[in-house]
Design a protein that fits this description.
By secondary structure, the chain is an alpha/beta fold. It has a domain of 278 residues: Alpha/Beta hydrolase fold, catalytic domain (Rossmann fold), CATH 3.40.50.1820. Helices cover 39% and strands 17% of the residues. A hairpin with a 4-residue loop joins strand 10 and strand 11. The N terminus is likely disordered. The chain binds 2-acetamido-2-deoxy-beta-D-glucopyranose (5 copies). Keywords: Signal. One of its GO terms (molecular function) is O-acyltransferase activity. This is Lecithin-cholesterol acyltransferase-like 1.
Length: 435
């Protein structure tokens, strides 16, 4: 009897040990599964640019559609649908445009001290962890996002879900100054942290190469700045930042100002480009930094000029309310001013040689009109000034880890992730960072 008892106990202990080991066994089987991913590569996590993540939404009865729009639950149902962006749906039924534009808006909730969706609209980012949601079904948005880079990486041995991952995010939100609420950005940060850790574990604990484009670089830089240095050094092999400098560029002051375009967008794209009828938290994130431009006039009118230092006055002149201007000053500006070197090995790649706005002339101070553009150098969107400022910021760190800034001639903001010659350079930098 005691013997049998012992035996059963032993069995149970074995079974329990096996159960505990099961995840490990499964993991080993997964690892042992034949794979076409090249095993020596460090895993890559891609963080795309503005508007390059897909969003789904669903409506509840709380949703109050714009008057006479016909939007809402009776027409759109209660299930999840593709809110950003479903070009096909808008082609089939252009009247949906009004619905989507309204449902993409954010509102600021003073009680929570944070932005949120319009009441009755729930949203989620599609396919976090993968690069599957980087594309668009809109032919005019072909190659705007990282699809070409994904293909180029696959050609050199990267495989989705094995050593290639994507970190899409809700681009309507933005990181806020330390201490202020930004639930969306905090959620993104926790997800990205887990994704990086899992990508590393899946690849023999090799640290990850983070590759960002445009606004994704700001999200990644703030994310890194807010993770413990030990974590960064353990998990981040390299940051490859494409097409971003310090702060944004003067060009971003234009659509922001255009109330006319915001009220009557000609397409959902234009609508989103005017930042969800001027409601997105992120619209203030890539305004030119006072640290880069100081008192240099960026917007010129007959009676007065506006520099980065006068941004609050400019926003007020462009029709933003006192509360909105206050949110620029308290939430967005401190993030721009506090940008710091990420303290991980870093390569910045930026296009140059393309006419890039560095001043806007609204002579009659009609910000809804089309400004005369004064061009400088850059990639068509990101001005070279801000790239030089990045070189000073990161290169000027007293104890900089590896830092390289590459200026790619004749390459546009979008060309960096779609022109074959630029892609070749980008992939070669990623491979270099990965060895
Ligand atoms: C876009 O909308 C159409 C309906 O017009 C739907 O069939 C399709 O599944 C939607 N696309 C996505 C990605 O949800
Ligand atoms: C944008 O907001 C303004 C009020 O600020 C409103 O009059 C207009 O209808 C809105 N436009 C859209 C497309 O929602
Ligand atoms: C605005 O800036 C321009 C260009 O720097 C300068 O020529 C002009 O005098 C300035 N205008 C005012 C009103 O300060
Ligand atoms: C401002 O420019 C817009 C667009 O060109 C025009 O429709 C509007 O009438 C102008 N406003 C004034 C006050 O001139
Ligand atoms: C950039 O493009 C211009 C005009 O197309 C051309 O003249 C120039 O040689 C190009 N420069 C480089 C470095 O490719």
């Amino acid at each position: 009897m005691p013997c049998a008892h012992k035996k059963r106990k032993l069995h149970r202990a074995t079974a329990m040990a096996f159960q505990r080991l099961l995840p490990l066994v499964v993991l080993l089987l997964l690892v042992a599964r034949p794979s076409s991913a090249v095993p020596s590569l460090h895993p890559v996590v891609l963080v795309p640019g503005n508007t390059c993540s897909q969003l789904e939404a669903r409506l509840t009865d709380e949703y109050e559609p714009p008057p006479a729009s016909g939007c809402g639950v009776p027409r759109q149902g209660r299930g999840w649908f593709r809110l950003w962006d479903n070009f096909t749906a808008l082609q089939e039924d252009p009247s949906l445009f009004r619905c989507y534009a309204d449902q993409l808006r954010l509102v600021y909730d003073p009680r929570a001290g944070d932005y949120r969706n319009v009441p009755g609209v729930k949203t989620r980012v599609v396919a976090f962890g993968t690069t599957r949601s980087f594309g668009s079904d809109d032919p005019s948005r072909k190659n705007v996002c990282m699809e070409g880079l994904v293909e180029a990486l696959e050609r050199v041995g990267y495989r989705e879900g094995e050593n290639l991952f994507g970190a899409p995010y809700d681009f309507r939100y933005a990181p806020a100054a330390p201490g202020l609420a930004s639930r969306a950005f905090s959620g993104f940060s926790s997800s990205l942290r887990l994704l990086v850790e899992r990508a590393s574990q899946r690849n023999g604990n090799k640290p990850v190469v983070l590759v960002t484009h445009s606004l994704g670089g700001l999200f990644a830089a703030v994310f890194l700045d807010r993770t413990p240095l030990r974590w960064r050094r353990r998990y981040v092999k390299h940051l490859v930042m494409l097409c971003l400098g310090v702060g944004g560029s003067p060009l971003n002051m234009w659509p922001l100002a255009s109330k006319a375009l915001a009220a009557n967008p000609t397409s959902l794209q234009a609508g989103v480009l005017t930042y969800g009828n001027r409601s997105f938290a992120s619209m203030f994130s890539l305004l030119p930094s006072p640290r880069v431009y100081g008192r240099t006039p960026l917007v010129i009118t007959r009676d007065r000029n506006y520099s980065a230092d006068d941004m609050a006055e400019y926003l007020a002149a462009a029709g933003f309310s006192e509360d909105e201007v206050a949110r620029y000053r308290t939430r967005a500006l401190p993030v721009t001013l506090n940008l710091r070197a990420p303290l991980v090995p870093m390569t910045a790649m930026n296009g140059v040689g393309v006419p890039t706005v560095d001043k806007l002339v609204f002579w009659d101070a009609n910000f809804s009109g089309k400004p005369k553009l004064v061009n400088g150098d850059g990639d068509g969107q990101i001005n070279l000034e801000t790239v030089l400022a990045l070189q000073r910021l990161v290169g000027g760190d007293p104890d900089p880890p590896y830092f390289k800034s590459i200026l790619v001639p004749n390459t546009t903001h979008k060309g960096m992730i779609s022109d074959q010659s630029a892609l070749k350079r980008v992939v070669s930098e990623i491979l270099g960072a990965s060895s």
